[in-house]
Amino acid sequence: MDEKNAVDYEMKLHVAKSIRMLDYVGLLDMNGHVSLRVPGEETFLINSRKASRASVTVGHIVRCDLDGRLVAGEDEPPSEVHIHAAIYQARSDVSSVVHSHPHWQTVLGIAGIDVKPVFGIGAFVDHIETYELSSLINTPEMGAEIAQLLKESFAVHLRHHGSVVVGDNVESAFARSVFMEENAKKQYFASLLDANHWVLEGENLERTRRTTWSPSIVQKVWTYYEEKAGRVGALDQVATS
């Protein structure tokens, strides 16, 4: 395998592992997707539409252009590929996009409760815009609406549906997805005990954000979940091309 193909393989492996790990923690089901921008190209990698999220492998990762059209791979991309394409067109700083179906964020959204920062590593949570159409985001126009709502932020909530999270690499998009959901879970249970529950704010919030979110912590999160998923066989044969 030459150097270019080796790099391509490693990027696909990263995407496939992220999907398996998100499935393992319950953020993906039979649907949902992870993508990764290919450096130096107007393309991105994403899991194919038919691939099971529980058994996706390197061989199920396809390549699309920034209009969401398939340019390499044996299967078509997911119908919601337009989410990814539109965000990559609008945000040059974004290198990875996760669309998942988180339970606790969706519950809060159905109740009309905004997600607030309520615990340490979830302190990065800020005001998140909400997209009100609950159907599949399966047109370029809807993808563009998501990108417009996202602006310079890191997430959009899809009412009755799920979320879209972005990062500067697969690891950061994965970590944000995991801890946005954990933050929402803690907020939900706190709200049952007291509607006026404590929320991180002010100087305490800013310090907490500075000390609990960094590239080294993101990598620590990724390594932890990678090892945990590997121990129970959730990553078996993921490297199959």
UniProtKB/TrEMBL annotation:
Cross-referenced InterPro entries: Aldolase_class_II_sugar_metab, Aldolase_II/adducin_N, Aldolase_II/adducin_N_sf
Annotated keywords: Lyase, Metal-binding
UniProt entry tagged with the keyword Glycosyltransferase: no
Residue ranges of domain Class II aldolase/adducin N-terminal in the record: 13-188
Superkingdom, taxonomy of origin: Bacteria
SMART domains: Aldolase_II (SM01007)
Name this polypeptide is given: Class II aldolase/adducin family protein
Pfam families assigned to the protein according to its UniProt record, in alphabetical order: Aldolase_II
Organism: Alicyclobacillus fastidiosus
